[in-house]
Amino acid sequence: MTMTGPSPGGRTAPRHEPVFAAVDLGATSGRVITARAGAGELVLTEVHRFANTPVRLPDGLHWNVLSLYQGVLDGLRAAARTGSWIASIGIDTWAVDYGLLDGSGALLGVPFHYRDSRNAAAVREVLEGCAAQELHAVSGLQHLPFNTVFQLTAHRSTAQWAAARTLLLMPDLLVHWLTGSVGTEITNASTTGLLDARTGIWSDALIGRLELPRSLFPPLREPGDPAGTLLPHVAEFTGLPMGTAVTTVASHDTASAVVAVPATESGFAYISCGTWSLAGLELDAPVLTEESRAANFTNERGVDGTVRYLRNIMGMWLLEECRRAWDRTNTSLTPDGLLAAAADARPFAALIDPDDGTFLAPGDMPSRIDAFLERTGQVPPDGPGGYVRCVLESLALAHRRTLRRAAELAGREVNRIHLVGGGSRNELLCQWTADATGLPVTAGPAEATALGNILVQARAHGLVGDLAEMRRLVARTQELRHYSPRGDLRAWDRAAARLDPGGGRSRPVPPAEGRGGDPAC
């Protein structure tokens, strides 16, 4: 069936099958992907990719948000040039970071990067006035030094803060620039530390307790809500029709990735593995016990009122930073060569805690790994393959530790792990996660975030059904790989005991009173 609709300049143009555009921004790159979805079809096409390169200014580390926005516009223009009917656009990014707008809607300064060092003092300041138990009782959030609540406290001493009238998280800022509308998508709002985990609304009591202006925080939006239509100058630049819809998706990239977990069974756990590994369970209600807080688990919102009960684990960032260091001196190293060398390296020769705070900031990662190993009485690897094996085995052990503890705290049984995102392409990590946990691992889709973004848009247009139907569609249409546990689980038990003598429990946060520094990293 052919339909007609508005084209640039108000003319009508033929419409065929709707195509959805996903803007997916990650920590190192952004891309615009188009897809058809529904009726047994789910096919993605990447139409534009661009770098996401942070910039260090005199006052700290920032996102180059104008470059990112230009990349979004260029990507939408590439989508328009395909000749498809772009029925809707959705935007997802990483969590916690934000821009401040003045009374006229203009951006105040350049958004800070969550890895900026300004947050350490803010953590101490917040916890002096509001105990960690109180924060967790409201938000249910994992204690991380870059949570938005700490970043806002660090921002309060600036001239920008005095002029600020609106706070927009990164995907909401980009939606605002495309449409002029103002709102906060709920899955990302849940990462701020200021959303009530029980009610799913802003916690006026906590915002007031921290002396933050309530007027900064816009109304909440749910995935699937309309966010507006393209502004005239955006339509003109991109070549998309005026009136092209922007749909609210699960704008926290992990929330979108979990939508696309191809689970057709109950009792599954997920690992969304990219720069970070987000490992956990999907629940119907938050787990707000003191035991959960002490184990440093988070309760973030998912689509349809679900709760993503998980922990952030330092993920492929460790390898990305190692490769950056090696590339400065050895340009012959390739990803495939590094993985082959890792496969040949001695098992369990060296192990790290991926969540050690020394690994958070950008820099010379091999040297930091050496320092950790020497501090813990281990011998550093003698070549890149040894470092890669160290990182991947350590991540597999962190996946094991986290998922076992999540199941224990939530009272759930896990029968299968779904590992999605870019890390699902890493066969060693997938196999070693199966070996370490003793559970089967289904790997893929690698493009889970973009798929989840697309599926929420397609559902808003009536082309797919509920969350279970979305996942069945992913399972039927996407390439998946399956890994069964192999080898001796006792070897992984012994390796786990070297760094985790507590017997498989997640590393706890320090006591709630009187702590300082970066306690949760």
Short note summarizing the structure:
By secondary structure, the chain is an alpha/beta fold.
What's the layout of helices and strands?
Blueprint: E1 3-6, E2 12-15, E3 18-25, E4 29-38, E5 41-51, E6 55-57, E7 60-62, H1 65-80, E8 85-92, E9 98-101, H2 119-129, H3 132-139, H4 148-155, H5 159-163, E10 166-169, H6 170-179, E11 184-185, H7 186-189, H8 204-209, E12 220-221, E13 226-229, H9 232-238, E14 245-247, H10 253-259, E15 268-273, E16 276-283, H11 290-294, E17 298-301, E18 307-314, H12 317-327, H13 335-344, H14 365-375, H15 384-410, E19 416-420, H16 427-437, E20 441-443, H17 448-460, H18 467-477, E21 481-483, H19 489-499
Parallel strand pairs: 3-8, 8-14, 11-12, 15-19, 19-20
Antiparallel strand pairs: 1-2, 3-4, 4-5, 6-7, 9-10, 13-14, 15-16, 16-18, 17-18, 20-21
Walk me through this protein's architecture.
The protein has 521 residues and is of the alpha/beta class. The chain has 2 domains: 3-251, ATPase, nucleotide binding domain (Nucleotidyltransferase, domain 5, 2-Layer Sandwich), CATH 3.30.420.40; 254-312 and 419-488, Nucleotidyltransferase, domain 5. Helices cover 37% and strands 21% of the residues. It has helices at residues 65-80, 119-129, 132-139, 148-155, 159-163, 170-179, 186-189, 204-209, 232-238, 253-259, 290-294, 317-327, 335-344, 365-375, 384-410, 427-437, 448-460, 467-477, 489-499; strands at 3-6, 12-15, 18-25, 29-38, 41-51, 55-57, 60-62, 85-92, 98-101, 166-169, 184-185, 220-221, 226-229, 245-247, 268-273, 276-283, 298-301, 307-314, 416-420, 441-443, 481-483. The strands form 6 sheets. Strands 17-18-16-15-19-20-21 form a 7-stranded mixed β-sheet, with helices on both faces. α2 (119-129) crosses α4, α12 runs antiparallel to α15 (384-410) and α13 crosses α15 (384-410). The longest helix is centred in the last third of the chain and has 27 residues, at 384-410. It is globular and about 60 Å long.
